Amino acid sequence: MIYSVYIINKAGGLVYQRDFAEQLEKVSSNDYLVLAGTFHGVHAITSKISPVPSSSGIEVLEGETFKLVCTQTLTGTKFLIVTDPQHQNVDALQKKVYDLYSNYVMKNPFHTPEMPIRSDQFDVGLSKLINEA
Amino acid sequence: MSDPSAYAFPTSGSSRLSTASSIYTDNRHTPQTRNKSLLERNLNRTKGAEVGLSSFAFLFSEMIQYAQKRVNGIQDLERKLNEFGYRVGLRMLELLVWRDRNPKREVRVLSILYFIHTALWKGLFGKQADSLEKSTENEDEFMISDNEPVLTKYISVPRELSQLNCNAFLAGVVEAILDSAQFSARVTAHTVPIDGFPLRTTILIKFEKDVLARDELLK
């Protein structure tokens, strides 16, 4: 079960957020921004304090009720996927989300880099992807 | 862009010419290989000469952003895209006729429309258009529809520009072909979604009166 997808730009701003599970509590849009910003900071800290040199930072965060998987692209954009703790194969899903992003967001002339994503085709593709998963 | 002669006759010395040609002949890295440049390639060989859709999508995206900065309003933007396409269409007609095994001049309205529906679409997108229809309301209007337009595959038009269809570029291509084949027409692109094909686009062709009058004589 996939709970939600977040996309955070390289400055720590939330550019896309969508929930897919109904049982999730709704919080204000400001709180989502704070959440994204906080995660961005935590991510930066983890990559600095890691004993491994040039660490990529936090990749998985597991809790009792959820699992959060983060991938950072070469340009610093972060994709977060929140799933239930048992969910397998999030990596493949991540790749597909990134695929959709590079097709329907980056190739869209009406998208401004680092700004919130408003692309109907990306929305549709993501819904389809989550329903299949 | 306003003064094309500046590009045709560079005033500065030959050094500029040599750098310009190096863009096309990429022999800086592989001097031994006999890779022919884009301009030297045989015009009749189409296999393996396709351009990646992603490359095109990024180029087209930049073209739209470029145009957007230089226009006021949606209609102006569509006009500009139409102009861009017009330059492609002029060359496409010549190229397609050259590539044709039995090249001939199309003289009838229906045959040139069929040529666009089939040969042009295949030459540009590798598939035929999905339908070619005559308008039931107006005698002088014809429609070519594509269920999944390749040009705008990755484009999501924002709500405030919902009137815009970036296939205005394609309309320009069609207009140029019709114009240079002596079928003067006004060509526009419209989004006409149907079930399962939300991006379906219709290219609306409105011929000049004398074109249809001439076609009547040829019957």
TrEMBL record, chain A:
Its main location: endoplasmic reticulum. Belongs to the TRAPP small subunits family. TRAPPC4 subfamily. InterPro entries: Longin-like_dom_sf, TRAPPC. Part of the multisubunit transport protein particle (TRAPP) complex. Keywords: Endoplasmic reticulum, ER-Golgi transport, Golgi apparatus, Transport. Gene3D superfamilies: 3.30.450.70. It is found in: Endoplasmic reticulum; Golgi apparatus, cis-Golgi network; Golgi apparatus. GO terms for cellular component: endoplasmic reticulum; Golgi apparatus; TRAPP complex. This is Trafficking protein particle complex subunit. GO terms for biological process: endoplasmic reticulum to Golgi vesicle-mediated transport. The keyword Endoplasmic reticulum applies. PANTHER family: TRAFFICKING PROTEIN PARTICLE COMPLEX SUBUNIT, TRAFFICKING PROTEIN PARTICLE COMPLEX SUBUNIT 4.
TrEMBL record, chain B:
Belongs to the TRAPP small subunits family. BET3 subfamily. Residues 12-22 have a biased composition (Low complexity). Part of the multisubunit TRAPP (transport protein particle) complex. It is found in: Endoplasmic reticulum; Golgi apparatus, cis-Golgi network. PANTHER family: 41-2 PROTEIN ANTIGEN-RELATED, TRAFFICKING PROTEIN PARTICLE COMPLEX SUBUNIT 5. Keywords: Endoplasmic reticulum, ER-Golgi transport, Golgi apparatus, Transport. It comes from Mortierella isabellina. It holds the Pfam family TRAPP. This is Trafficking protein particle complex subunit. GO terms for biological process: endoplasmic reticulum to Golgi vesicle-mediated transport. Residues 1-35 are annotated as: Disordered. It comes from the Eukaryota. One of its GO terms (cellular component) is endoplasmic reticulum.
